[in-house]
Amino acid sequence: MNVSNSVGIVSAQHAQFNTPFLCKSGAVLPSYELIYETYGTLNKDKSNAVLVCHALSGHHHVAGYYAEDPKNIGWWDTMIGPGKPIDTQKFFIIGLNNLGGCNGSTGPISINLNTGKPYGASFPVVTVEDWVKSQAQLADKLGINQFAAVIGGSLGGMQALQWSLAYPGRVRHVLAIASAPRLTAQNIAFNDVARSAILTDPNFYGGDYYEHGVVPTRGLRLARMLGHITYLSNDAMADKFGRGLRSDKYSYSYDIEFEIESYLRYQGDKFAAYFDANTYLLMTKALDYFDPAREYNDDLNKAFAVARANFLVLSFTTDWRFAPERSRAIVKALLHNRLKVSYAEITSTHGHDSFLMQHTHYHDVMRAYFDNIASEFTA
To answer: In degrees, to the nearest 5, what angle opens at C-alpha 215 toward C-alphas 211 and 219?
Structure first.
């Protein structure tokens, strides 16, 4: 492993919150815990902190690797580290697992202290607003009054946008990558089909499958396969798999024959082995519900009237799940409110997953923007 520009060995940290947490739905969690990681050093006046918000299946392990498992590299390791676009020699970066997650933060698999059993189906539906509220409470605990930047891709980008609305004075820069101001009807439909696959799995047991010692593997596998198709572009699938067969002739059966079928089954099985089905349901519902314009008669301009941050909005040409026009809608609303916004549409063949890829133009844009942020507190 080349560790010359890696943050190196990292470890997770835990933050416990013992005051009741009121969710947007009206449900109350009596207490909760967030798991997070940090990279770099917080400067004296705490002006160089960057919050990374994760997407649907993301988590707190954003960069570096674990001593006990060097192959477990952070999901955005190409972006964060010494000399990388988000330079840990300049910034103090925080990555966390959101409330409702299955990677250490309080969620459906956590033990409900009132019952002694996992929350399961009783865990409340959480929203982007709830996540940002809990992230602000983590920032309070760390003594960070204002972030230099809040950044995220996809669902993470929605959280970054929400920061500018819920806490306009606590973030100087917002970076929304491959994101949208709300889901289209088509996207909501994809999420509903994915949830239906889980909800109708006979091993789901209404969300309380933990007590039965089973996992709704089939439903979770199908949900992931469907999602994965939408994250890739047609060009990416054509280039990688085409119509390639596993053998040199058709079998005239329903067995796996095409390479793309084998790939999707592998991705589905791998995902079902480590991700919690209840968390998947929660995350997709949070995607569906995010709609800041809803409270303003669908007027996005009015929704962003409270924002004060500077913005970088990025989209990718082959991303049809969060298409560039969705990012341009954000830009239009920001410009309407006379906010400083930079926009780039990156040419990429990787579809929605482009925001996770190491792409020269994309990384150059990110590097330039973060260098400008760094100049604010190094001048």
So the answer is: 135
CA dihedral 359, 362, 363, 364 (to 10 degrees): 120
Catalytic site includes residue 359:
no
Does residue 247 have an active-site annotation? no
> What is the distance between the alpha carbons of residues 180 and 326, in angstroms, rounded to a whole number?
5
Report the distance separating Cα 330 and Cα 324, nearest Å: 10
Reduced to 3 states (helix: H, G, I; strand: E, B; else coil), residue 262 is: helix
Choosing from 61, 350, 352, 359, the catalytic residue is: 352
In sequence order, which ranges of the chain are alpha helices (DSSP H)? 128-141, 155-166, 185-199, 217-231, 234-240, 259-274, 277-289, 300-303, 324-336, 360-378
224 is in an annotated binding site: yes
Tell me the pLDDT of the chain (379 aa) as tens digits: 445 689 999 999 999 999 999 999 999 999 999 999 999 999 999 999 999 999 999 999 999 999 999 999 999 999 999 999 999 999 999 999 999 999 999 999 999 998 999 999 999 999 999 999 999 999 999 999 999 999 999 999 999 999 999 999 999 999 999 999 999 999 999 999 999 999 999 999 999 999 999 999 999 999 999 999 999 888 888 888 888 888 888 888 888 888 999 989 999 999 999 999 999 999 999 999 999 999 999 999 999 999 999 999 999 999 999 999 999 999 999 999 999 999 999 999 999 999 999 999 999 999 999 999 999 986 5
Nearest Cα to Cα of residue 102 among 283, 320, 364: 283
Tell me: is residue 353 an annotated ligand-binding position: yes
Catalytic residue among 59, 319, 327, 359: 319
Q: Show the tokens assigned to 219.
A: 């439903």
Q: Which of 47, 110, 154, 315 is catalytic?
A: 154
Active-site residue 371, yes or no? no
